[in-house]
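W.,

You were right to be curious about this one. When I first looked at the sequence I had no strong expectations either way, so I just let the prediction run and decided to look at it fresh. Below is the sequence, 494 residues in total, followed by the output.
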Amino acid sequence: MLMASGGSSGGLFSNFFGSKDNAANASIGGSINSGKGTTNEVIKTVNGMRQRRLGGSDICVSELGLGSQRVSADFNAPNKEQVFEFLDTAIIKHGVNLIDTAEQYPIPSDGKIAKEGDSELVIGEWMKVRGMDKGEGRKKVVIASKITGGRNVTPKNIKRDCSASLQRLGTDYIDVYQLHWPARYSPQSNWGQSLAYNIENDKSPYYRGMGGPTSFEELCLAMQDLIDEGKIRGWGLCNDNAYGLTGCTRTAKGLGVTPPCSIQGDFSLIDRKSEENGVAEAASPFNENGEMLHFWLEQYNNFTTFDTYRGMLTGKYINRPAAIDNEDRSKGKELLANPRGRMDEFGWGRTLYRYRTDAAQEAILEYSKIAKSAGISLTELSLRWCRQRSLVTTSLVGHSNIKQLQESIDYFTKSDPLNEQIMWEIDVSLVDFRPGGGRTAPQNGDREPPIFPTMARVSGSACALVHANGRAIYSTYLTYDVIHTCTFYEFLRI
C-alpha cells in the first residue's frame, strides 16, 4: 500500500522484509523491470493521498483503491447512484485514482437484476458523465480489470475479452489488465482453502487436455500485443504465487517484452502468507520489481478486498458469531435472514470458514485489545498495518456507505505510521496465536499463561518462541494449519 508508510516502523519482522521506504529507495542494478523506476516509490501526493509507482511501470496508484465486486443484487450492495457517490468522493475530492474491476463482476450475479460485466458498465458510465473516459480526464483514473482465469486464458481470449471490457468501460485503454486467476493449476487460486500442491489436480484433463494450459510464453506475447495496440498500459496477475510471478517476469525478459507490474492477492493481519511464501521476495525491487495490489476487504460490505478479511477484522463478529457458527440456532436463523456480511450467508459462510479458525479468532481478540490500547478502532489498526508492509503498494477496500468510505480515506491520509511498539505487539500476538500456538485459548475470560517462554528479542528485531527442547516455532499467518519449525540457532541465521 502507499500512503505515509513512514520509515522503518515495520514491526518484529521489519528487518526480514524491509521498510517500504527503504525498499523504494534501493539501488536495484540490473532489475529487469527497472526501466521506468523502482516499485513503490512515491510519485506525488494528492489531497493528502500518496500515490506510488506500481511495479517497474509508469503507472501510479493511490494507496487506497476502490473495488467493484458487489455492484449487484447482493444484500447491502450499492446501487448506481451510491457507486457514483463513492467514486465522486474518493477520486474527485480525495486523491484516490485506482478502481479495480473484472469482466466477471459483480459477484454474485443472477443474470437478471445483475449480470457479469455490469460493474464495468457502471464504472464506464461514471467515467463518461464525469469526463474521465478519454483525453486528459482519463489520466485522472487508473482502471484495473481482469480476464476470467483457468482455461479461459488463451491468446485469442485475452484479446477478445480485453476488447469486450474496453467496450463496457467506454474507454480506449485499461491501465492494468490482470489474470483473475492463473491459466495453469495453482493451489493459490483455490482462494486459500489449501495451499498444498496436488499433482493429481495438475494432471487433470481440465488443465492438461487439448494442449494444456496457456504457457508463460504465450501469455507474455499476448499481453505485449495488447500493449503495442494501445489497449493496455501494463498487466499483472491475481490469485497467483511466487512461481507464477517469477515465471512470467523471467519469461518476459527472455522474450524482450513487458513483464507484469503487479500481483493481486489476499493479505491481512490474519493472512500474512505472502510475506513468507516467496511473493514478497519475488516482488522486491531487488528481484522482479513488481509489487502487490493487495485485495479483498469486506471491511464494510461492498466494493472488494480482504484487509479486514470478510469483516472479521472489523470486530463485528466478536460478540455475536457468524450465523453458521452460532450455537443458538434461532439467532443463527435470524442472522441468515438479516446478514451483517458474507460470514452470515450460508454459502459464503461455509466457503470462508478459514477466517474463523480458533487461532484467527483468538488473534482478532488480541488485536482488538491492541487497537483499544492505541485509541483506534480494530479496522483502523488493520488498514494502517497493511499500509506499512513493504510488499504492498495499494489496498482495495470495500464499503457499504459513504461514512465508511470517509473513514478509510481518513486512515489512509494520516501521515504518521503505527509506532514500533504497536507493530511489535501485533507480531507477538501473531506468534502467540498461530495454529498450535504458544498460548492456550482463553478460559472463562482469563488469559492462560504461555505454554512456552515469552517472545525473545534478538539484535532488536528477530524473535522466536522457544520450546524447552530448544526448538523455535513461528508462523506469519493464522488461516492455515501449518506450523514452520526450525532450531533456535537456525532461526537466528535466517
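Here's what jumped out at me. The chain has 18 helices and 15 strands. And, maybe more interesting for your project: The CA atoms of residues 472 and 486 lie 6 Å apart.

Coffee later to discuss?

I.
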